[in-house]
Amino acid sequence: MTRRGVFKPIWNGYFEEGTPMKTAQASVIVSEAKQSPFSDCFVSAKVRWRILAMTAFLLLPTPSSFAKPEVIQIKGSDTMVNLGQAWAEEFMKENPEVSIAVTGGGSGTGIAALINGTTNIAQSSRDMKAEEKAEVLKATGKGVKEFLVGIDALAVVVHPGNPVSELSMDQLSDIFTRKITRWNEVGGADEPILVLSRERNSGTHVYFLEQVLRKGNAQGPEEFAPSVLMMPSSQAIVQEVSRSQTAIGYVGLGYVTKKLKPLQVRKTPESPAVAPAIETAQNKTYPISRPLYIYTAGEPEGDEKRFINFVMSGEGQEIVRVMDFVPLQTTEDR
Amino acid sequence: MHSRRIAEFFIEAAIFLAGTLSILFVILIFIFLLKESLSLFETTSLWDFLTGKDWYPISYPPRFGILPLILGSVWVTVGAIAISVPLSVSCAIYIAEVAPRWLRDLLKAGVELLAAIPSVVLGFIGLTALVPLVQGVFHLPTGLTALSGSLMLGFMAVPTIVSITEDALTNVPRSYREGALALGATHWQTIWRVLLPAASPGLVAAVMLGVGRVIGETMAVMMITGNAAQIPSSFLQPVRTMTATIAAEMGEAVRGSDHYFALFSIGIVLFMITFFINLTADFFLHRERQKLS
């Protein structure tokens, strides 16, 4: 039995105007004009235009006059991060059109960022190794420029209740490599020594490893013993040493508080024991003091150059002193 | 005109892509990890990597032995499961079987709330409250030990294990319960001898997923386990886990160095462990459905 007109299924195209259709229940004559492909889409025309407008707006390029000025990135040493922030704040106060962002992560992190190109300036509490300088040259095509910006004395700290007040460099090396394991071997109580260190990404860690454990020989065989606890920050070392009678750790001079006791250190068993302080770090009688560096890839230009000049000026060095680091001696003081 | 056919085709393709995207991501992540980590094995053999006792990645020459790290993760995980499973299963039994309806809803909401606390916040609480407590109670030189890590992680695994176990218990058909009670068993006898064995595949799956959660935890363990890369001989010693090692050292590793590849290799080891744990969990969940249907 034929039916007049054919009810065309919707997937066979569009209905021609005037086609009568018979369905099971009723006859319907399609009287509208041919419909567009999107007319049976489930959003209305108004909504479709809105979506189109929003997409166009998002894809439009942002006018450059609205863009923020270039931010100078400074990354690296956790020891220097507060110092870097103090410098940046003072510099931005005097030069409001400049924007500086300071982050920590460890000296190793800063140097890696310099190699990867994700920072303008790397702060480091240890000097860069030859391989790292070669990596920077390979990755960026520019040689590394090194700026000495301050000195940090590393204090070896113990709990204030610990009877030991002074140790020699050899004894420190043996404690951190665990050749000496009990406090009574160095004049203290008969208790095992709890040794704390910073993590490997820290310049403080690398400096301590090379200068104290390896006694200045960067490639020596000594290592931190596996049982040495690796703390994520200097603050964590401060907290743990102040809580534990048998702990020993090392932090920058700026972190020493009343809750800790810094030890006096002898360079050799015969030399005098010297306490860490600004004067002893400057005249090099305290053996564990290290230079603080700023590194850039290639000669710094523009705002970076002005920032580094600020850092090395009298004003910048005064900030170093205020932040409990050791300022570089100016030519008048020598 | 076939415009509607074309439209149908594109919509179906889009839905298919969305559905398979998650599997695609997992495969791509695996390939990326594998590519980066295989470069390590040109200089260090796989055996030396997995069984070496010295993790000194920045020395000359560097040594990449991750046995202390694997054992650290395993000890912390085993401790966390030992603490968490009795607690969670008891909680789930109480919620599913014993608690009155109003208390059941409250407890379920409470357990979900526990799951919502960020892990770094729990790590911070562990550092300031749990670590000194452990130090005082056990008279240790430091509270930064595997035990503190296990306690905190056990706490974190509770919501996972409770919700799946509770689901497994409520899925046991009423006929089991009714049959046991009809034979004269007490409520506890029903729970202990009938329901728990019947729900056991679900229980195993819950524990496996709890293990997966714990072994991948990074921030909390980094703050409270002490990070000493030694082979642990007791729970009262500091340990270093694989996850904390990656988190602590990745920022510093120079891209393309052996240290960088070694960290990816640790990542692959972690990936494989979690993958097999989840596979086992899925297998047991499947068996549970088969058993009860």
Distance between the termini of chain B: 48 Å
Sequence stretches where pLDDT stays below 50 over 5 or more residues of chain B: none
Oligomer: heterodimer
Strand content range of chain B: under 5%
- Spatial strand sequence of the major β-sheet of chain B: 1-2
The helix tally of chain A amounts to 10
Helix content range of chain B: over 70%
Mind describing the biggest β-sheet of chain B?
A: 2 strands, antiparallel
The strand count of chain B comes to 2
Mean pLDDT metric of chain B: 91
Largest sheet of chain A: 9 strands, mixed
Count, helices of chain B: 12
Structural class of chain A: alpha/beta
Mean pLDDT of chain A: 82
Order of helices and strands of chain A: EEHEHEHEHEEHEHEHEEEHEHH
Task: Indicate the topology.
The complex is a heterodimer of chains A (about 325) and B (about 290).
Chain A: E1 20-22, E2 27-29, H1 45-59, E3 71-76, H2 81-94, E4 99-105, H3 107-116, E5 121-124, H4 130-140, E6 144-158, E7 166-168, H5 169-176, E8 194-198, H6 203-213, E9 229-231, H7 234-243, E10 247-252, E11 261-262, E12 264-266, H8 278-282, E13 289-297, H9 302-312, H10 314-322
Helix pairs in contact in A: 3-4
Chain B: H1 3-38, H2 46-51, E1 55-56, E2 63-64, H3 67-98, H4 101-116, H5 119-137, H6 146-170, H7 174-182, H8 187-198, H9 200-215, H10 219-224, H11 242-249, H12 258-292
Antiparallel strand pairs in B: 1-2
Helix pairs in contact in B: 1-12, 3-6, 3-9, 4-6, 5-6, 6-9, 7-8, 9-12, 11-12
Explain the overall architecture.
- Chain A has helices at residues 45-59, 81-94, 107-116, 130-140, 169-176, 203-213, 234-243, 278-282, 302-312, 314-322; strands at residues 20-22, 27-29, 71-76, 99-105, 121-124, 144-158, 166-168, 194-198, 229-231, 247-252, 261-262, 264-266, 289-297.
- Chain A is elongated.
- Chain A has 10 helices and 13 strands.
- Classes of the chains: A alpha/beta (334), B mainly alpha (293).
- At the A-B interface, α3 and β9 of A face α1 and β1 of B.
